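Deliverable D4.2, example record:
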Amino acid sequence: MSTKTPMKIIISGGGSGGHVFPALAIADAIRAKAPDVNILFVGAKGKIEMEKVPLAGYPIQGLWISGLHRKLTLRNLAFPFKLISSLVKSFGIVRAFKPDVVIGVGGFASGPVLQVASFLGIPTLIQEQNSYPGLTNRLLAKRVSKICIAYDRMDRYFPKEKLVMTGNPVRKVFSKEAVDKATAFAHFGLQAGKKTLFSFGGSLGAQSINEALAANAELMRKHPDVQLLWQAGKLYYDRFKDSEMAQLPNVKIRAFIDRMDMAYTIADLVISRAGALTIAELSQVSQPAILIPSPNVAEDHQTMNVKALAEKDAAVLLPDPQAKEKVIARALEVVQDQSRLAELASNVHKLAQPNAADLIAQEVFKLMPEKET
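Output generated by the structure prediction step:
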């Protein structure tokens, strides 16, 4: 009598929370369907995945790898050596672990591992989170078996026959109905019933968004009927905590907010960057938003992300150079227009893919070769 041996899967990539948290969601979805699965992560040394993945209960190995810098810099001279080192180590990891499928989630580390896996004939899948794919995934597209996407018209960049629309998996299921609103207002020291803006720029913060908010204290002072929950980020909290804006009675500034479910529950309008993970969360909770794309990301992909939403009237696009002058004025205009809020909420929710991680897991299982012992 034959029995199936446990499947083995490598998940590679990272570099930011926008890659790591979806990767963990995919791993959890696979494990929920196949509890005996053996999952190994491969990341970049010194990056967020080396901390977050072990905390989530998965083993990880690190590569000495980083991306090419867009500006001429001496750090680019080390890139060929890092790439060769990472390819050699990836070859050793893949040969030793013997995965049935290798998944790439974008970021520096996914390139070498997926290259090696495809060279060895191992089924491969990449998950592209953005509406404009990163360089790593564009280079891998011809080699991989399957490409899971979150936006329409991605056949402009990838082979059409490999594409599967799955959406972007989020860290956890957010639901505005799951949290008591009065409890959430009290948690942040805000007044129930007031129109509420919620601004954040990731766990570390976004400098230009913080500067834009700080520059608009006088306008916020003139609208005591609207309150602001402001996550400045760990890098910027000390700089902005004593600003005139932060001292207003209708403003609460925090370094970091770990209860995002509560923040979304009380928010009438969000002001944030436009990373793929943020957009996936906003769509899942039907959250109206003003999105300010970061100018500091590869290929300006956040602007592409927002344009894809703005075309469907699912978010308000505010270019970063205009943020200081317009962000609070635009936010006050939108947050006090109930029909506009309802329209944005309805349109962004149409883009939600709450089962994205499960759909990606299903595609992984389809690639799995039959194993018997």
